[in-house]
Amino acid sequence: MKKARMKSHYEGKKKSPCLTPNDGKSTTKTENPDKKTDKSKDVSKAASADKDKSKKKESTKKGKQVNRLKESRKMALLEANEQEDREIKKLERFLGLNKRKNKKTLPQSFVTDGLDYILGVLDSGSAAAGMYRGDDDDDDDDMEMAKENFEKLEESDTQQSEEDEKAEDEMASEVSENDDDGDDDEEEDDKEEDEEEDVSEGSDELMESDAADEENEEKSEDEDQSDEKAPPSLKSEAVTTEPGKYVPPQLRNAGDDKRKAELEKLRRNIKGLLNRLSEPNMGFVCSQLNELFMNYSRKDMNDTLTEVLLAACVTPTLMPDRLVTEHVLLVSILHHSVGLEVGAHFLETVVRRFDEVYKSSSEGKECDNLVAIVAHLYNFQVVHSTLIFDILKLLLGSFLEKDIELILFVLKNVGFALRKDDPLALKELISEAQRKANDTRSKFQDQTRVRFMLETMLALKNNDIRKIPGYDPEPVERLKKLQRTLIHRSSGGSDVKLRVSLENLLAAEQVGRWWIVGSSWSGVPMIGKQEDPTAKHSSTEGRFSAKVLELARKQRMNTEVRRNIFCVLMTSEDYLDAFEKLLRMGLKDKQEREIVHVLMDCCLQEKTFNGFYAVLGEKFCSHDRRFQMTFQFSLWDKFRELPNLSSSTFNNLVQLVTHFLQRKCLSLSILKVIEFGELDKPTVRFLRQVLTKLLKDTDPEDLAAIFGRISGIPQLAMLREGLKLFISHFLLKNAQTQAPAEQAALLSERAEVAAKAMEAKEATLKL
């Protein structure tokens, strides 16, 4: 019956009389159900209306709670931002930054102290942020984390509010049960109402849980999508990275994968260009490398280019001459177009590699390839002949079979160019090789290689190209023409040769690189002493004291170049200081000759001979052959003016010429302009003083070397005969009659040494 009533209640039907077994009770029983059903309908309608109202109130209540929570948090954030702005303005006022006009950039003091990199951790927009985080998207991750925390707080608040409402409903239901009057029908109706409320509450709870599950699923999907969009580096860094510490500038590139990738890409680009290198596309490859020099740093380009070039040209096997010449031609073009540091870095690396391989005495052909590179660098006007002669002297020092082979290799490639640039040095080298060959005759079982080397040297000396087997200058000359077409010089007389020696290159790490503009150098002996700041400032800026300028005017230094040279000579500390300052003046060919003229004029104007000018002139003569020729022409002019010279000037000239001859700066060939058949008294006096000092004050070995420099030369036959006649007629006769016996014997002995040295014949070479 109870189930039937519940069914009829929910279906809204009346109870049928057939359901009652007794007639007397049926009337009452049939009347009561009608009343009960009407009453239950009214109660259910009222309960549903109350529930709708309660639901609306609950939803509005929840919305108001969430809105109040958001507004309160928003106000708290705004207040915190305002407080932070006030603190920042206070600190700016203390630091004096509020007076700056451009407040978008950091002040220079922050940059110098390294604070821009520390601020890069906090500021995602700065360039330094990538040093610590790797990307600017880290702020987005922080915002997502903040949103997730905010939503979790909202969910916890809503859950607490729902639990409170449930507790209130349970209390209300308990109170309603306690207030029941005990009627069975009313109890059943109450139970039905409770069941309806439980069903509605369960449905509400299910709906709320479904909504919460949907929100959680949407959040998880958004997080998954953000994780998929983010690169893997950010995922890993979000877990592993910590607040970055300050990294010094010299250590910032250590272990940087991005830099390694850039260098690897640069190396591939350069290697690809060098693989396509040939004579026709030399201009294209040079233009591409010029663009790379503009886009990358000089250090990275020099290191990478040198590494790739040495990997291509230096192998255990002998490389083809054409390949080596084309690669060296590329270096020479970049040396002229980009800057001196390109050729200087490549040359220093090659020489250091040659020194290592030569000392290790390896059996491969790496040493031959390195020597070929240096020789072709000389061919293409990158390096001066000084380095080539230093390498040849090094090879002559040990004089082994490998050394003889390398000497032949160098002379075959650049022998005639060396003869053209510095014939005296080549002649001394040949004489040294002859002495070495005679001394080490028993050292070699097979003399064929040594004999072939001496024949090659003799062919070079006599300018006989036919006696050098396999010599073909045509490929190098063709590449030189190509070089002239590709090099665009700002001035036709510019000289970009590196005038460095082997010792300078090997000691570059300890002493410095004076041949590179802007590089430090500690090779001057006076570098440790304190210099006068006023004198240094005046010499560097071209401002000299009034006293020195007045002295220059009295000495008739009428041009600006001569005046500057004179002031440098007068204000220098020593001859090395004067030499460096004069070289740094950057004088051109014609202006450079003024150095010799001013030096000669100052030396001859002194009351007594000053050795400073002689030592400085010796330094210039050893520096370049151009100065030797200029000194020779200047002395010839003075020889013509001997009758007009004063006694002090005459004595100074004798001292200067004697010093140059003793130091082997100049040869006795400077006297070939003197006509020994038409000698006047000043000339006889000059020759007597010069030759007497030369014979008395010089050791026999040095004397033989000095007079031996003019032997065997057909053009100097008249000079040799004139000197022999002058020594025997004007020196020995006067010494026997006027000088003491000891000095006369010494003079005659030295005269015999000089005569034998001049009579030495070098037409035939003997082992």
Automatic annotation (TrEMBL):
Acidic residues bias: start-end ranges: 156-226
SMART domains tied to this protein: MA3, MIF4G
SUPFAM superfamilies per UniProt: ARM repeat
Name of the featured protein: Nucleolar MIF4G domain-containing protein 1
Species this protein is from: Oryzias latipes (Japanese rice fish)
Similarity remark: Belongs to the CWC22 family.
PROSITE patterns to which the protein is assigned, alphabetical: MI
GO cellular component: nucleolus
Coiled-coil zones: none
Described purpose of this protein according to its UniProt entry: Plays a role in targeting PPP1CA to the nucleolus.
Residues in MI domain copies: 560-676
Entries under InterPro entries matching the protein: ARM-type_fold, CWC22_splicing_factor, Initiation_fac_eIF4g_MI, MIF4G-like_typ-3
Bias type Basic and acidic residues, positions: 26-61, 144-155
GO MF annotation list: RNA binding
Domain of life: Eukaryota
Gene3D superfamilies, per database record: 1.25.40.180
Keyword Nucleus: yes
Source species taxonomy: Eukaryota, Metazoa, Chordata, Craniata, Vertebrata
Compartment(s) where it occurs, according to its Swiss-Prot or TrEMBL record: Nucleus, Nucleolus
